[in-house]
Structure formats: C-alpha cells, structure tokens
Amino acid sequence: MTSLVRGSQLTRLLGQWHALPGRHRRPDYAALAAAVRGLVADGRLPLGVRLPAERELAESLAVSRTTVSAAYRALRESGHLTSRRGAGSWTALPNGHRVATSGLWAAPDDLDMIDLGVAASAAPPELITATREAADDLPRYLGSAGYHPVGLIELREAVAAGFTARGVATSPEQILITSGTQQALDLVLRLSVPAGAPVLVESPTYPNALAALAARRARINTHGMDTATGWDGELLLGALRQTRPRLTYVIPEFQNPTGHLMDAALRERLVATAHTAGTELVADESFVDLPLDGAVLPPPVAVFDRHSRVVSIGGMSKAYWGGLRIGWVRASAPMVQRLAAIRVGVDMASPVLEQLVAVRLLRQAATIVPARRAELRHRRDTLVETLRALLPEWTFTVPPGGTMLWAELDGPVSSALARAAEDVGVRLAPGPRFGLDGTLERFLRLPFALPPSDLIEAVRRIAGVHHDLDRATARSSWRTPAVIA
Asked: pTM of the entire structure?
C-alpha cells in the first residue's frame, strides 16, 4: 500500500517555503515546487509517497489551487512527480536514476588513507588481557564439538543481565548470540520477511541494513528524518498505519547516521502503533552504550512491549571492538529457538574463544565503557571545532552520543566530494549511501572514531578539495561513477 502524506503534514515539512521578496522574486508556484524538490532530494519526503490532492494542499498552505496545480505541473516536468488521472500524484526522481544499496565496504588496507567510512573505534587495551584469560579458560570447552547455536550460557547470562539492568527483565533463554549485529539483523529478516514483503525504515539509515533488506527482496518504504530534530512522530506513525509493513527497523539511540536520540514518548507510541498494525519492530541498539554528554537515556523500546512485537539487536562493535564480531538478539524465547534453527544453516555458531573474550570484556564494562565515552567526547568536540573553523558553510547538529555527525553541505555534492577526497587520502561515506534512489546528496556522514590528529588532518584535506571542487570537475583524472539502474 502506498504511503500518503496529508496536506497538514506536507505544510509542516515545507516550513517557510514562500518566495523571498525582491527584484528577482520567483512566482509562488516555482518556490513551492523547489521546496518539494528539496524535501525529496534530502530524503525527508520519501520516494513513492502520494502527495495530497491539489485542493487539500491549497487549503493547508492558504494559497490558491492554481498555485498548487502549477507547482505540481512543474514537478512533473522536472521528473519529481508522477501522476495518474483520478489516482493521484507520487514523488519520484528524474530519469529513473537509482543508487545501489550495497552497503559500505573498505578497500585493502592503505596506511596513508584516513578512513572516515567506518564509524567504529580501535580495540581497548583490556582486550589483550581478556583474550589471554579466555584462552586459559578454553580447555573446559574442548571436550565438546564446540557448536553452540544460541551461544555460550555465560555470555547469554551476561547480556541478559545488561538488559535487566536497563529495566527490561530478560532471561538467558531470550538471548541469541550472533556474529555481530549485522548477522543479528540478517537472521531476523530471514525469519520474518518473505520476498516482496513491505518493510519500513528511517531515511537516512544504516547502509548495511538496506543491503540486508535488498537481499531479502523486501519492498522498502521510508520515513524521512529531519536533520535538526530527528523523527517526525506524526509522519512515522502515519506511515506505519498506512503501509502496515511486515517489519519496521529503527535505530532509536544515536541514530546512524544522524546521531538523534528518540524520546520515551515516541518509543511508547511506536510500540503501540506497531502492535495495532501487526508489525514486528526491530530496534537496533548498536550505540546504546555511548551517550557522551551525561544525559540519562530513555527506557529501551522493549520496555513498552506487551505483545512480543519488539526484537532488540545489538553488539560489542561500537563500545568495545568491531573485530570481535559479537552481537545478539533479544526476543521471546520461542523466537530465539526459531532463529537458532535458521542460524544452524548459516554458520552453525559463533566462535567459542571470541564469546569467552566477550564475557570478560563485559565484566569490565564499568571501566571500558566510560573510557570509550570520554575518548569519543573529546574526538567529537575536536571534529566539531575543526569543521566550524575550516568549513563554516556546512551545518550540523552536535550529536549527544554515538560515533558520528551528519553534516549538511552547501550543495548537492556529496558523491563528487567523496571521489575527490579519495584522491587526497580520505575515504568518505557520501549521503546517498544512507538512503534510496539517489537522494541525500546534500549530506555527508563524518565519524569521530579516529584519533584527533587524524580528524583534523582529514577535515583539512576535505576542505582543500571542497573549495576546489568546481575547478576539479574539469580534470580528466576524475573517475566516472558507475551508473546502476
């Protein structure tokens, strides 16, 4: 079912759309069309959404219907709107351009490359000692085959205790240990999303989640997030009610890539609406351990679950180390057993040694996690200060946690800037990687997981190619981007 945006909702998204007074004032219809194009390009108005009828939007905007008709006509002519008589008009992109949602990847290691494509930190010093202790403990497991599809009981107990401490009573039977958060999501999708089933995700969102959904051949609908304020509750819940997706995927804590934190009231309403719509709600808690400004986090989404609609996934990549590849699923005990049965056909089980290392790191969480937060807070502030000094025309909201900020550029040049930055030794993740169909070209994700000196040098190089971007486009050495239809 196609999602519909109502006149009052579109009016709120448009904000101050009117043409500015002056000698070069544009007609109101042209200003309205430009504002809608901007919402589509920034991903705040998803593709394939049906816009309100001309009369409804005219009444909501307090303009003539002629103005709205002319704006819709201009949008059709530019390829940003498709219409069918008697059925309505839907948002689109011109010429059918699409961008692959194959997620992010890293080229072979290059010591001269500053990699801002990955939002994860190096390992904590405690990892070495934890690994040695785990190796000493390994002999007691060597007498068995070593396959534990749901995970070692002591690690499941540790993860369950973490949920319980956050206010969600959890037993080890509700925990499945996985090879990272990505596998946790993949297993849930294998169980819950048949080919062609509708799903709802945020826009922008984590690229590898989009890749996993594409692999399941899911029919993806999006909820556009506001750069400054995050989720629009009315639009998010409206999309849930209208599309009734099989599954909804959200990142409520320090959302990837925007860094926003979902408030408690919206979490409660989201769970209730998901139950009414018959939707399974997947909450990705990858960044839950990383509030950076001392704020008390809202209750976990699962706190509000009364009908086993919420599946929580998370792992140790962000607060500990991505190379450990330890993740988990928290769900009802019967669902965990079904996921384990699927998991046997994928990779049998997670490595025993890595799980033993994870147990020891979790025991030291009171030392490791605060140190990681302090480190990231300093790096975030360094990145913010450097961006404001060298690229003052870029705008962003300072994230209260997580490992990244989402910058709005001074033009739709994100992909071009990423290509240029690669030539000067900086790897970037351009905005379109975090959305569908080529939108988000005005945005760039900038992680602050690297040491301050690397962040300063990376921004210096980015600023250099950014200010030279117009002249650089004429260079024959530029690589032509692949066209993916």
From this structure: 0.81
